[in-house]
Write a structure and sequence with these properties.
This is Thiol-disulfide oxidoreductase ResA. Keywords: Membrane, Redox-active center, Transmembrane, Transmembrane helix. InterPro entries: AhpC/TSA (IPR000866), Thioredoxin-like_sf (IPR036249), Thioredoxin_CS (IPR017937), Thioredoxin_domain (IPR013766), Thioredoxin_ResA/DsbE_sf (IPR050553). One of its GO terms (molecular function) is antioxidant activity. Helix 3 packs across helix 5. The chain has 5 helices and 8 strands. Helix 3 links the parallel strand 4 and strand 5. Strands 1-8-7-4-5-6 form a 6-stranded mixed beta sheet. Strands 2-3 form a two-stranded antiparallel sheet. By secondary structure, it is α/β, with parallel strands linked by helices. The protein folds into 2 domains: about 40 residues; about 150 residues, 3-Layer(aba) Sandwich (Glutaredoxin). Helix content is about 40%, strand content about 20%.
Length: about 200
């Protein structure tokens, strides 16, 4: 065997050893990589878990999360005035809806169940429609709505004025900060999880 053939065989053997070591070393790394990627995709908070499970709604207004909710002063269909600042220490859900909206109507039993389950000290639901007071009042009586219903055509501050689709819900924590905003039908289970999430 010539020196040239011997050198070529030696280089081939070294390359083969390097490839084998690379494969052996890379094997476990490739197995761990999907686990790491999966860990990065795992929801980090209770809210993230609820969002990951959503199929009939989506989060909106993310830039407002953690910020104080702008003050609202609204009068409900019974004539009672409500200021958001009065509900500090209570979870609040602002629901933007309409009597003609099918998903809004489908959401009503979920809201009624939450109202029955949680006291007004734990949860305040303010359902806001921009329809005529008479229309909303008649609908609320017909459907036996057990939560606060408001009909207003007032110009509301952002983010409330940014609502373009209904139902839209804005969840406030006990400090009056925006926890989450959703567009679409939120069922009772998801709404409860959002309300109770820290």
């Amino acid at each position: 065997m010539t020196n040239r053939n011997l050198l070529a065989s030696f280089i081939a053997a070294i390359l083969l050893i390097i490839v084998i070591l690379f494969i052996i070393d890379k094997g476990p790394y490739e197995e761990a990589q999907p686990q790491e990627a999966q860990a990065e995709k795992e929801p980090q908070t209770q809210i993230d878990k609820v969002i990951a499970d959503a199929d009939t709604w989506a989060p909106i207004f993310e830039q407002w999360y953690g910020k104080p909710a702008p003050e609202l002063e609204l009068t409900d269909i019974t004539g009672e005035t409500h200021n958001l600042s009065d509900y500090k220490g209570t979870n609040v859900v602002l629901v933007f809806w309409a009597t003609w909206c099918p998903p809004c109507k489908m959401e009503i039993p979920h809201l009624k169940a939450l109202r029955e389950e949680m006291s007004k000290d734990e949860l305040m639901i303010l359902a806001i429609s921009n329809e005529a007071d008479r229309t909303v009042k008649s609908f609320a009586e017909q459907e036996n709505l057990n939560y606060t219903v408001i009909a207003t055509d007032k110009q509301l501050p952002k983010p409330y004025s940014l609502v373009t689709g209904i139902p839209t819900s804005i969840y406030l924590d006990k400090q009056g900060n925006i926890k989450l905003a959703t567009q679409g039908l939120v069922n009772e289970e998801h709404a409860r999880a959002i309300i109770l999430a820290e």
